[in-house]
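Task: encode each sequence below as structure tokens.

Item 1
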Amino acid sequence: MADQKITQLTAETAPIGTDLLVMVDDPAGTPATEKVTMQDVVQGLAATQAEQETGTAVNRIVTPGRQHFHLSAIKCFGFTTGAGTPTLHANSYNTTSITDTALGRLTVTIGNDFSSANWCGTCTPTNTTNANRMCSLVTKAVGSVILETSSAATTLADPGVGWDWQFTGDL
């Protein structure tokens, strides 16, 4: 290997965290050739939660475990099937449970709480008919929200098929 150029070495196409790289530390000062693991390189470049929340760093990579900390990311979404007796769909995200509180009212429990009740969201009643329904977020807390649907006459009414929701804000 000592008599080969780097371009002549065998390429590693599936590096893992414990693989080693050669690096030059402090090239402008007192250069030193050192080793570093792939994992340490990635950790050194990965955005922290604080950097994701401010969204100002342009020299960081975002890992899947940190992506949801950016304010623009959806923090919770879900949907139900069944109008009168809603069932939380398995593909919902960060939704711990739902409770059918009353006619036209659903309480959503958020898994990973928001940092305050100052978050925003949308909800939509799902219908198979042309029945006009409106949906609103009635009571917001850090870990739950009450959704309501009503008819065009503002009378509480269950959605025709189910509920859909999505929330954004600071965790």
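Item 2
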Amino acid sequence: MLSIILKKSLLVSMIMLIFNINCLTFLIGINIIYMDFYKKLNKSFNRSSNQKGGTTNVKLLLKFSLGLLLVFAFTSPLLAADVMGQVAIYNERAGWIDAGTAQAQSKIFMDGVKLTKDIQVLGDADIAKWAEGNLKDGDVDVIITFGDFPSKLYTPGNAQKDGSVVELFIEAGNMVLNTADYIFYVNQGAGSNGDTALKNITDSNFDMWTDGTVTEPTDAGKKYTPSLPKSITAPRCFKKSQIDANDEWDLEVAFAENAGNCDPAIIRNNKYGGRVGILFQVADAGPPRGKVLIEIFDNWLKEKVKAKAVDPNSKLATTWARVKHD
């Protein structure tokens, strides 16, 4: 009997993993698995009442409880896993590269990524509304920027030390990825935020002054992002020593590193689960930004999140939102 319970538990776990079954279906599955067993248990109770006292009842109850625990043990990590949400790209302005390059790399990413096709290109006027609409959905939503940060997400000049839309977005378990100029530094072509913005948004003392650094792919980089060049000019890196010294942030992955300076890399807040990532923060239009973004999503991020179940009758497609700059 116990071996049957174990086999059924494993079967439900595998089905949930393959088909991304939600919690309601999980409960239905539990009911199906134990319906037959419960009937046998009930009959056994009736028979055992005239036989060996309560010994048989106790054994059956223990088997039933163990089986239930096994199912939860196998499936609870799946139920708790983060779900991939939406992606918003801001590329109407860029820093250290031109907007045309940013838009071309965005298209490479949008056309090639498989983890999600729920992607929008939004302007400064709309991206904050989008972010606010994704603060409580429980999904891992992502904002991608190209070295110029939207003013509606973070008021220029560091007027919002705390409570900016982007800070709330990260604290809701979401992610911001940046390429080209220093993350959060530039707004509408001017460096009005400076290096203070990163400190404010992450509540840290992080800086990215690593001029002269050349990083090389790590083992993680070779595994997840094989399109990385053998050497990467990286003047604006995360500094591992600063992250290690901060109790709230962890270096989740460094795809390339040199002496503790990391780019591309992603850090994760261990309290809220939000992430901040960078790749190719350099004044060069040449790096394969779009291709590496695809690899970060489809090779690395897919191990951290579940793809959202899509209605087979719907025609979810990548959306290009053409927004005029105001």
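Check on item 2: Residues 82-306 form a domain with the Rossmann fold fold (CATH 3.40.50). DSSP finds ten helices and 13 strands in the chain.
End of task.
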